Amino acid sequence: MTDFVVGKIYFILIRLKIKFMELSILKVETSGIGSNVYEDKETVTKFEVMDGCPSRGETIPIRLFLTSIDLAPSMKEVQNKFSVRWYINIVLTDEEDRRYFKKQEFTLYRKQVEPK
After folding, report:
1. 3-state secondary structure of 21
2. Considering the domain boundaries, does residue 113 fall inside one?
3. What is the pLDDT of residue 18?
4. Residue 17: pLDDT above 80?
5. CA triplet 5, 102, 82: central angle to 5 degrees?
6. Nearest to residue 10, comparing CAs of 59, 61, 62?
7. Best label site of 29, 57, 62, 91, fewest CB within 10 Å?
8. Who's near 56: CB < 8 A, 6+ residues apart?
9. Adjacent-strand bridge partners of 41
10. Sorting pLDDT into bands at 50, 70 and 90, what band is 82?
11. Residue 51 falls within a domain, yes or no?
12. How far apart are the first and last CA of the chain?
C-alpha cells in the first residue's frame, strides 16, 4: 500500500473552544446472518492533528500515509455473511470534554495485475 489520504479542514466560524482534534482509521468487521450478527470494531491507528483552538479562517492540511498501516481490502456482503469496512473518523474535543464526530467510509481494493 503506497497510497495516502489528503485533505483539508477549514474553520470558517468558530463557536467552540476546541482542545484538540484526532484523526483515526477504523476497521469494522461484520459476520453472521439474521439476528445472529456480530460486529467487531477496531481502531487501527490514531493521530492527533491539532492541539489548541484554531483561529477563524484557519486551514489545517492533512496527509496520512498508509504505508505503515496494516490494511486489507474492503469486502461487502461476502455470501451475505461477512463484510469488512474502513472508516476515517475525525473527533473534535472542546474544553468541556464534549466530543464531536465525523465519520466517512472509504473503500480499499486490490489492483488486478494484467498477465504478460
Report:
1. strand
2. no
3. 86
4. yes
5. 75
6. 59
7. 57
8. 11, 12, 13, 14
9. 28
10. confident
11. yes
12. 22
Task: Say which amino acid occupies 108.
Answer: L
In a domain, 112, yes or no: no
Contact 89, 101 (CB under 8 A): yes
Q: According to the model, what pLDDT value does residue 87 have? A: 93
Nearest alpha-carbon partner for 42 in 60, 69, 66: 69
The CATH number that applies at residue 12 is 2.60.40.640
Higher local confidence (pLDDT), 1 or 24: 24
Distances (CA, A) of 11 to 23, 56, 94, 97, 101: 16, 6, 14, 19, 15
Structurally, the chain folds into a number of domains equal to 1
Indicate if the alpha-carbon torsion angle 25, 3, 78, 104 is positive or negative: positive
d(CA 46, CA 100): 16
Q: And the C-alpha cell for 47?
A: 493521530
